[in-house]
Amino acid sequence: MGFEFGVFHEFQRRPGQSEAEAFTTAFDQVDAAERWGLDAIWLAEIHMAPERSVCSVPMTIASAIAARTNNIKIGTGVQVLPLCQPLRLAEDSATVDHISHGRLIFGVGRSGFPRAYEAYGIPYGESPERFAEVLEIVKRAWTEEKFSFAGKYYNYENVCIVPKPYRRPHPPIRIAANREDTFIAAAKQGYAIFVGARRGTFDEVLPNLQIYRDAWKAAGHAGHGEVYLRAPVYVGDTVEQALSDPQESLMNFYRYLGARLEESANSAGVFDTARRIEGAHRLQNLTWDEARRGRAIVGTPEIVADNLASLRDQLGLAGILAELNTGGLIPHERVMRSMQLLCEKVQPRLR
Fold it and tell me: Rounded CA gap, 29 and 336, in Å?
């Protein structure tokens, strides 16, 4: 298949908006994405951030999208596995796969932020082991009639989940990676990956992609592995509009992310304190010029298509998860226009 065009959606809540209005606006955008022929919609999982998002239960929202659309693929970007009860997640996701007739993409990760773990009462330091257990249980629940499992956190004896997924043997699995060990583990197991450039630049992703592809080859898999990039994208009718519309929203978000990174640096279970502090300072001192040249893709349809094509070639990308409203402050009508231009003017150029 060609280059996959997806939109990454947080179901943002703008300042002054009610939760009900946030859902209405987001579903309007999803309906438009289906109408304009977008390949995929990706749902974030964000907990306890009332100022930012109402997307705390992506699988439930995925079910609603599945019922109101016919063509668009629906991905979790990502389901935070260590916070999940694995059998329930296997049932929920297989059910969404049936409702969508096989359009679910199972994107999973651990989340870089301990806040939701602390609220859920799960130690963040346990997240790598919990992630591995939950993923193995879900996959076995989907593919084996009955199975038993003995792990550190979960034990099951002769269990059978219903339904099994619509898509056989199971929905595509993609893993969010930003640490070297995750790139290696995903490659060994033969999983596609998501990479983001929120903390750094697009160029800084390259060394980890080399690690992923080397590990992929060493494991004896065919091909090179699939890589999908999540990045801020904004398409305007003019260069001036494309640069001015997202500036405040994006820069606000980078400051917010920097503050969150700094706040998380000394949390229990965090192994990369120095890296987080350094990343936080970079984000807090970032200029708009630096952001739009190395971390975001903004411009007219022609400019965005050219930038995406060169990133596709440079990083070996299979697709994009375009964040059209990073920071959530861009007005709804502008987000809709940006998405229309992405679908109608940019998407055909990379086919």
Answer: 7
pLDDT at 274 (0 to 100): 80
Please provide residue 40's backbone torsions phi and psi, each rounded to the nearest 5 degrees.
Answer: -150, 145
Q: Is this structure's pTM higher than 0.85?
A: yes
**What tokens does 176 get?**
């969010």
H helix runs in 69-113, sequence order: 86-99
Instruction: Give the mean model confidence (pLDDT) for residues 336-351.
Output: 97
The mean pLDDT value for 139-148 works out to 98
Q: How far apart are CA 308 and CA 30, in angstroms?
A: 22
* Torsion angles phi and psi, residue 231, rounded to 5: -155, 150
* pLDDT exceeds cutoff 80 at 271: no
Q: Are 173 and 192 in contact (CB under 8 A)?
A: yes
With a cut of 70, say whether residue 1 has pLDDT above it. no
In one letter, which amino acid is 32?
Answer: A
Query: Residue-wise over 242-277: b if at least 16 C-beta within 10 A, else e?
Result: beebbbebbbebbbbbbebbbebbebeebeeeeebe
Q: Which of 307, 306, 305, 277 is nearest to 293 (CA)?
A: 307
pLDDT in tens, 318-330: 999 999 999 999 9
CA distance readout (Å), 80 to 57, 108, 258, 276, 300: 10, 6, 21, 20, 34
Phi and psi dihedrals of 5, rounded to 5?
-100, 120
For residues 264 and 303, the model is more confident at 303
For residue 56, the SS3 value is coil
> Residue 204 and residue 202: Cα distance in Å, rounded?
5
